[in-house]
Design goal:
CATH class of the largest domain in chain B: Alpha Beta
Radius of gyration of chain B: 27 Å
Strand order of the largest sheet of chain B: 11-12-9-19-16-17-18
Shape of chain B: globular
Order of helices and strands of chain A: EEHEEEHHHH
Number of strands of chain B: 29
Oligomer: heterodimer
Largest interface: A-B, 56 and 55 residues
CATH topology of the largest domain in chain B: Aldehyde Oxidoreductase, domain 4
Distance between the termini of chain B: 50 Å
Number of helices of chain B: 18
CATH superfamily of the largest domain in chain B: Aldehyde oxidase/xanthine dehydrogenase, molybdopterin binding domain
CATH architecture of the largest domain in chain A: Roll
Number of helices of chain A: 5
Number of strands of chain A: 5
CATH architecture of the largest domain in chain B: 2-Layer Sandwich
Helix content of chain A: 25-40%
Number of domains of chain A: 2
Helix content of chain B: 25-40%
Distance between the termini of chain A: 43 Å
Chain lengths: ~160, ~725
């Protein structure tokens, strides 16, 4: 049965009225119109629905909205600050690390999560972190390049 | 059989949708300016036969005479901004950018001032579909000619203004200038207050590639920022006032029909709309969960038909082949019998390819909205006009009451040609009296879409003692005719396609049957090279006269460092090449086979590609490398499994596609031929991947693999 559930999304308190078992992905997309987070498979295998929960990448299709209630949720829409792209967004843009770009939100969120715990990942560590994110267009080499570039620019900016 | 050449038409595949459309444009000339404001407009008219096939037949605009074979139009507005219209869709192949480059280049305006309006049946000219790598070879020249004509109109307008001859004036950077006096007028000033529309002159000269200034450059993707911020709206991201979410009750197996139906319990749920129409059952509700629950509450029994399984697939394809063969599907040259008799070595081998799925990350989806008997559908589709026609026919409404809009789409790879999701959403929306969105689940996507057809290829060949091909007999069962011919010089040939009963719904997939035919041919060529005790590249070049194919083989080999000496246990190298759809490709691959586990890893690939004059080298590189990575899946491990009308591996956890760890070091060598027209690049770069890898595995292990996927579970024969 639908119940009001309080969420903290991109630093703002939001209330959704839905069944507590509803996947967080649906609450974001259908109740809050945050459609930057994508549905790709519904079984946690493609990573298109990746969001950050207290800074760590999580598959929002696999998480009941009630389980996210006490956490801080960041979606792709929450990365840009004062008109400035997050360094990972900027690096994807600079590297042209997309084709159809449907996977891009999830790729960026997983990469932001990686850089939060590992500020200078090796290629093998990037591959490991993004192994659960699918890009069917085959843009993986540029995505790896973009993550390296983002790590570099974060260090330069000292963020 | 006769020894003479017969007319051979390798395209389109029989499973392509090639029925002629019958419709008219919706935007009258008056409306055009109402919509875009005053300015200068040019309508591009198809010139060559191929382009004409992709346009509508006879009827023109409603009210004023316009040629019937318009393929594109563009408009220069009073603010100097340029809007170009095409029925092609953006699905990640980057045409929004490369076509805008083409227009900007020819019109001599900054890239940023060009906006492309794509794939909206109410706004853009008819287009057959974004298929067959046709966007660059047909749409690019059409837009270029329209832009060139618009530039001439602007120059003429300036000449009139200054009362001078047009010949001495120049156009550059959005301005017309008079070098004699130094004065200039911006396009914006020239377009002001005008409603000047011109059809294209039959022949309008365009800028040759060696004088391009904006085309040919690695310009970043248009609107790229909206993709990294999540702002871009794909079809599943659209929301309309009052919109409901739709779900379809799928039968338990293909072809099942309803034998009993009871929806009383589901219908009692408030806010849910249930539709049963023939064997279609669907529900629409305020959210997906409620719609799904409603479907779960419907009691339905199905009548099922027993069906075959993937285990007996290849035997069935052969067994059920049609005995009839028409001349369109057969090519005979010389005499196979005498070619084989003259051979020093003969080889006979059979190859197979499995059904595979496109698995675009954005599943099939549509949002349908009825208003006053008119239907608007947003949908990720490669064929918006075909979808419109089908909607009109299925819902018994005139075509001009249906509008299909294709937002830039989360990929397709040949998989988004049908209108299924649109029909479902529109049916539910009509019953609900609200807009309805249907987004297929991944499981639906893997089951109810369509597949790249499986096939069996049988090859019989002969070579002389010096390695010259004497005979080439090639039969393809079911997968199709694309690239079925051999590019090698063979005096005696028999090439034939055999249709058969296909157990699964099949359709286009990036490259169509060319991937299967390349795999069989290039694997077989490798086997022949071994028989002749020749290097694989040397053997190919010995039997090849086509200079463009020789060039890509040599370029790939050079960059890869072919031939290579093995330096490690389990290492192997392979090469393959060919041409299709105006593009020439060669791939070299290095594999590492772990003897203890039988695991195969592709370590490195080099693909050389040549498609005439390159419009955007950055976008092209992305396409070529992407095709190589996507090709790894079909080469190594992708296969649809089915049994008794059910897909048994319809999810990403059971259907393996390439992931980061599978991606080798890949190099794309792009040959830019400014002297040749631009061909497409969406498909051909995928074609040589599988045979190059198969040949490398043979080089590493001595085991010849003749089935795609090559190693779904590693190499069992090597396991110790």
């Amino acid at each position: 049965m639908a119940k009001p559930i309080e969420l903290t999304i991109n630093g703002k308190r939001r209330t959704v009225q839905c069944d507590p078992e509803t996947p967080l992905l649906n609450a974001l997309r259908d109740d809050l119109n945050l459609t930057g987070t994508k549905y790709g498979c519904g079984e946690g295998q493609c990573g298109a629905c990746t969001v950050l929960l207290d800074g760590a990448p999580r598959r929002s299709c696999q998480m009941p909205v009630s389980a996210a209630a006490a956490k801080s949720i960041t979606t792709i829409e929450g990365l840009e600050k004062d008109g400035h792209l997050h360094p990972v967004q900027q690096a994807f843009l600079d590297a042209g690390a997309f084709q159809c770009a449907y996977c891009t939100s999830g790729m960026i969120m997983s990469s932001v999560g990686l850089l939060a715990t590992n500020s200078k990942p090796t290629t093998a560590e990037i591959v490991q972190a993004l192994q659960g994110n699918l890009c069917r267009c085959g843009t993986q080499p540029r995505i790896i390049e973009a993550v390296h570039q983002a790590a570099k620019s974060r260090q330069e900016r000292g963020r | 059989m006769s020894g003479s050449d017969v007319k051979f038409v390798p395209e389109p595949e029989r499973y392509e949708f090639n029925a002629g459309p019958m419709h008219h444009f919706e935007l009258a000339r008056r409306d055009f300016f109402k919509f875009l404001g005053a300015g200068i407009a040019v309508f591009a008219v198809a010139k060559d036969a191929l382009a004409k096939q992709e346009t509508a037949p006879t009827q023109g605009f409603h009210s004023e005479e316009l040629p019937n074979n318009i393929t594109a139009w563009l408009h220069v507005g009073e603010d100097g901004n340029v809007t170009a219209f095409t029925g092609k869709v953006e699905i990640g192949q980057n045409i929004r950018t490369s076509l805008a480059q083409t227009v900007a280049d020819e019109l001599r305006v900054p890239f940023e001032s060009v906006t492309m309006v794509t794939a909206d049946t109410a706004l853009t000219p008819f287009d057959f579909g974004t298929v067959g790598s046709r966007s660059m070879p047909t749409m690019s020249p059409q837009l270029r000619r329209a832009a060139s004509a618009a530039r001439d109109l602007l120059v003429a307008a300036a000449a009139k203004e200054w009362n001078v001859a047009a010949e001495g004036l120049t156009a550059a950077d959005g301005k017309v200038s008079d070098p004699a006096t130094g004065r200039s007028l911006r396009y914006a000033e020239l377009a002001r207050g005008k409603t000047l529309a011109e059809n294209l002159p039959a022949e309008d000269p365009v800028t040759p590639p060696n004088q391009w200034t904006i085309a040919g450059k690695p310009i970043p993707k248009k609107d790229a920022r909206s993709f990294v911020t999540g702002e871009h709206k794909y079809t599943p991201d659209f929301r309309r006032p009052g919109m409901l979410y739709g779900k379809v009750l799928r039968p338990p197996s293909f072809g099942a029909t309803i034998s009993s139906y009871d929806a009383a319990a589901a219908q009692a749920i408030s806010g849910v709309v249930i539709v049963r129409d023939g064997d279609f059952i669907g529900a629409a509700a305020a959210n997906e969960r409620e719609a799904r629950k409603a479907l779960e509450g419907i009691r339905v029994e199905w009548k099922e038909e027993p069906q075959s399984s993937s285990k007996e697939l290849f035997a069935n394809l052969k067994k059920n082949a049609s005995a009839k063969s028409d001349e369109r599907s057969r090519k005979i040259k010389g005499s196979i019998e005498s070619g084989l008799a003259a051979a020093a070595h003969r080889l006979d081998a059979s190859y197979t390819v499995a059904f595979i799925a496109h698995a675009p990350l954005e599943p099939r989806a549509a949002l349908a909205e009825w208003s006053d008997g008119k239907l608007t559908v947003w949908m990720g589709s490669q064929r918006p006009f075909a979808v419109r026609d089908e909607l009109a026919s299925v819902f018994h409404v005139p075509e001009d009451s249906v509008r299909v809009i294709v937002p830039d789409t989360g990929s397709a790879y040949g998989g988004k040609h049908t209108s299924d999701a649109a029909l479902e959403a529109a049916r539910l929306a009509r019953a609900a009296g609200h807009p309805v969105q249907v987004v297929w689940t991944r499981e639906e996507e893997f089951t109810w879409a369509y597949f790249r057809p499986a096939g069996v290829m049988e090859v019989k060949s002969g070579i002389a003692a010096d390695g010259t091909l004497t005979a080439w007999e090639f039969h393809n069962y079911n997968s199709g005719m694309s690239a079925i011919e051999t590019p090698y010089v063979v005096p005696n040939q028999h090439i034939q396609f055999h249709s058969t009963q296909c157990p699964l719904r099949s359709g286009s997939y990036r490259g169509l049957a060319a991937t299967a035919n390349f795999f069989a041919r290039e694997s077989h060529m490798d086997e022949l090279a071994r028989t002749a005790q020749m290097d694989s590249l040397e053997f190919r070049l010995k039997n090849l006269s086509d200079p463009r194919l020789r060039a890509v083989l040599e370029a790939a080999a050079k960059s890869f460092g072919w031939p290579r000496k093995k330096t490690q246990e389990g290492q192997g190298f392979g090469i393959a090449g060919g041409f299709e759809k105006g593009g020439y490709v060669a791939t070299c691959a290095e594999v590492a086979v772990e003897r203890s586990s039988g695991g195969v890893r592709v370590v490195r690939m080099t693909t050389a590609y040549e498609c005439g004059a390159i419009v955007n080298p950055d976008g092209l590189r992305n396409q070529v490398i992407g095709a190589n990575i996507q090709g790894l899946g079909g080469a190594l491990f992708e296969a649809i499994e089915f049994e008794n009308g059910r897909i048994t591996n319809a999810r990403f956890s059971r259907y393996r596609v390439p992931r980061f760890r599978d991606v080798p070091e890949i190099e794309a060598v792009l040959l830019d031929r400014k002297d040749l027209p631009s061909a497409g690049a969406g498909e051909t770069p995928i074609m040589a991947v599988a045979p190059a890898i198969g040949n490398a595995i043979f080089d590493a292990t001595g085991t010849r693999l003749r089935s795609l996927p090559l190693v779904p579970n590693g190499l069992p024969s090597l396991k110790t």
